[in-house]
Task: inverse folding
């Protein structure tokens, strides 16, 4: 953090004491942020996400956990929801984003509204726990928004066993 007057305060500050001035950053994506330390240990600087309802949800907790940080779940969330969120975050893959899954009967319009939820820009069409296809923005171009996704999805889905080495 940089202070406008270049002076360091003699006491601790709270959020009420400071105003964060927005600035341009060279970081174009959260995936470009490097939190690794320079000491060669391979550890990362821990990132803590505030316990604010609009910020610290399951999706943020998953993303931050993958990068070595922690999200504090807000205290105004019902305890059963907190427990479910923690279970989901702990069960999430440590490297890959949890896919957004949709039923084959979902409309293209509904599916397109879900695409921004993940950086990979794809939805997995699932029925009875089995993948049927993948829907991307391109699949939704030039079709009626009330068309069901099973009519436009790509069906060439290839799955691999969990734990398989990516080089294999």
Result:
């Amino acid at each position: 953090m940089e202070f406008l007057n270049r002076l360091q305060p003699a006491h601790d500050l709270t959020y009420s004491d400071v105003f964060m001035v927005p600035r341009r950053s060279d970081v174009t994506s959260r995936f470009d942020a490097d939190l690794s330390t320079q000491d060669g240990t391979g550890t990362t600087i821990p990132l803590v996400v505030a316990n604010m309802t609009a910020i610290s949800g399951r999706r943020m907790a998953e993303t931050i956990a993958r990068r070595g940080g922690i999200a504090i779940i807000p205290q105004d969330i019902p305890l059963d929801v907190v427990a479910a969120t923690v279970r989901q975050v702990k069960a999430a893959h440590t490297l890959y984003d949890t896919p957004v899954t949709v039923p084959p009967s979902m409309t293209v319009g509904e599916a397109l509204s879900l695409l921004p939820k993940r950086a990979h820009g794809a939805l997995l069409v699932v029925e009875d726990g089995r993948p049927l296809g993948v829907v991307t923005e391109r699949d939704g171009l030039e079709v009626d928004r009330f068309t069901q996704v099973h009519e436009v999805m790509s069906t060439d889905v290839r799955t691999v066993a969990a734990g398989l080495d990516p080089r294999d």
